[in-house]
Amino acid sequence: MYCYSISSPAGATIAYHEKTSIYTKETREGMPKIPSFGILPLIKTQQASHLRKLRMTIVKKQSTKTSSPLSPSFLSALASKASHFIHSSISNVISPPIQPWVDPDQVLTGNFAPVEEMGPTECPVVEGQLPPSLNGTAYLRNGSNPQLRPRRALQYFEADGMIHSLHFSSDGRAIYSSRYVETYKYKIERKNGAATIPNFMAGFYGLIDVARFFGLLGQILRGRLSVMEGFGGANTSVAFFGKKLMALCESDLPYIITLTEDGDIKTLKRWDFDRRVMANMTAHPKFDEDTKEAFAFRYNMFCPFLTFFRFDENGVKHEDVNITSLKQPCLIHDFAITKRFVVFDETQLVFSVAKMMLGRGSIVDHNPKKIPRIGVLPRYATNDSDLKWFYVPGFNGFHLVNAWENEEDEIEILGTNVLSLGNILVKRVTTSLDKVTINMQTGEISRKVLSPRNLEFGAINSSYAGKRNRYAYFAVMEEVPKTSGVVKIDLETGREVGIRFYGVGSFGGEPLFVRKDAENGASPVDEDDGYVISYVHNENTEESRFLVMDAKSPELEIVAAIKMPRRVPYGFHGLFLSKEELSNIRVHTP
Fold first, then answer.
1. Which of 17, 161, 212, 549 lies 20 to 30 Å from 63, alpha-carbon distance?
2. Is 390 a domain residue?
3. Burial 190-204 (b: 16+ CB within 10 A, else e)
């Protein structure tokens, strides 16, 4: 074998080995030409096993000079490396890099980026016609929209709430409006001109975030901030009961809002039905349309870790029922009701205050060793003595879509099961649609996967809440809360009986079912007589639309499409208000 040696000014030698045993002029002229290198004389070398596969190797020249272990240059290099190590270690303790999923520069991009408020603006119908039954109604959807850039980490679930509403006037016009929910947190930070309230779900990364938290405590102790006012963003959902329209998040009490005659949104006040430190309520209260009652709960960092309560039809709250059998704080996002019971789902999501206070990330943690449980409590219970817990391995229900009782003393629970629970804060999750059946007499439990498709944000005909229903509508999840389409599931067979994808580059959010009002003298008869509605955004054209789809159609055909005056960011949960509900809000608005 022959070796061409090519030396470089950088102090490296490139050896080119040719398999032929004869050196020829053509071979030498065919060598790769490297202008900055000089070709050294040809050196014939012996064949060696370690050179057989070698075509080009860079061999560094060995320095002939060696430094004494105690020479000044050695000590200087050692001191430099030690200084760099200490500085890097201290920086990682004080202010380490934050994770991409809580980095505002990566979270608040595209249609996740915030928008400015917009007053009432009329929107054109660009496809089809609005159904007459929508006249005099309204649709409101909540979502995160930070007014100020966070100082450090931001979990998208924690930003300031903004309501995006469409008011359908009596003469068929669509009026869009978007306003911040003016929470205590929103007002404090707007006054300060900076995002000063820590994001607990995003967590603390390093001592700098922990120090800011103690700075917040100092302001509270000096009376500059009030924990009695809460620090939530009211960004998750919208609810109506007790003649009150509310914006909610589970870390605070609801904020009462209203929709004006011209379609604008106004924040009235925080609903202080519970005067306690850092009082809160679920963002998913349940409403029984037959009894006009509402049911809710709150979870806590300290015992009791779960508390259930209900409201009568006038919004008067009944006494708390503390769930003392829950032995550790955990994140319970949703629950369900039947005609006789309330159903809680205790998942593997737990709270770790110690982890957060050590600057190691979110207060929410995933405990894979914990076995999920479902708790069933009589809905008019005055204490938790009749609460029954059932272990349901593998079921981490984040949203419970509905539950009902059948004739065999069984309760059936429909929910989306989060299979990748450890990624719940990363926005990319994997789910399945499951139905859990519990025999209240024997304790026998079964779980059936109705759909393996990645579904979330389930919706049903609201008049079937707590009753057996046949159809449910789910968003096809891309990344929370961004969805690529909507699927209609027959709950008796598990089959997909309706489906619509929004198209390349177009994404929506939660689909909401709206019952048909009497149209052309005919009243709705079937459970799925109605429409599915959702905001949809085209990321290629930067255009947002509001779609009204036929809930009975196998293709969920578009009945009407409204062009929005600007993009509508991806958001969370919405609410449809009937004519009667909208008039009740305005009558009882102070």
1. 17
2. yes
3. eeeeebbbbbbbbbb
284 is in an annotated binding site: yes
Share of the chain above pLDDT 90, in %: 62
Shared domain for 292 and 266, answered yes or no, is no
Same domain, yes or no: 299 and 406: yes
Tell me: is residue 573 an annotated ligand-binding position.
Answer: yes
Query: 55's torsion region: left (phi>0), alpha (psi -120 to 50) or beta?
Result: alpha
Residue 82 CA neighbour count, 13 Å, CB half: 6
Q: Which of these, 1, 97, 11, 9, lies nearest to 53 by C-alpha position?
A: 1
Tell which residue, 239, 240, 233, 238, has the closest CA to residue 280.
233
Confidence tier at 19 by pLDDT (50, 70, 90) = very low
Residues 489 and 513 in one domain: yes
What's the per-residue H, E or C state across 276-318? CCCCCCCCCCEECCCCCCEEEEEECCCCCCEEEEEECCCCCEC
Residue 201 shares a structural domain with residue 348:
no
Could you tell me if 124 and 239 lie in one domain? yes
Pairwise CA distance, residues 86 & 78, whole Å:
12
pTM over 0.70, yes/no: yes
Question: 164 labelled as ligand-binding?
Answer: no
537 labelled binding-site residue: no
Give 82: exposed, middle or buried? Use CB within 10 Å, 0-12, 13-18, 19+. Answer: exposed
Give the residue among 590, 587, 586, 588 at the shortest CA–CA distance from 259.
586
Residue 158, CA distances (Å) to 203, 337, 378, 493 in order:
11, 27, 32, 38
Compute the distance between CA of residue 466 and CA of residue 154 in angstroms, rounded to an integer.
Answer: 36
User: Distance between CA atoms of 227 and 146, rounded to whole angstroms?
Assistant: 21
Dist. CA 411–CA 100, nearest whole Å: 41
Question: Which residue type does 163 have?
Answer: I
Distance CA 330, CA 305 (A): 8
Angle between helices 72-94 and 207-221 (to 10 degrees): 40
Residue with tokens 């200087």, as numbered in its chain: 76
Is 276 contained in some domain?
Answer: no
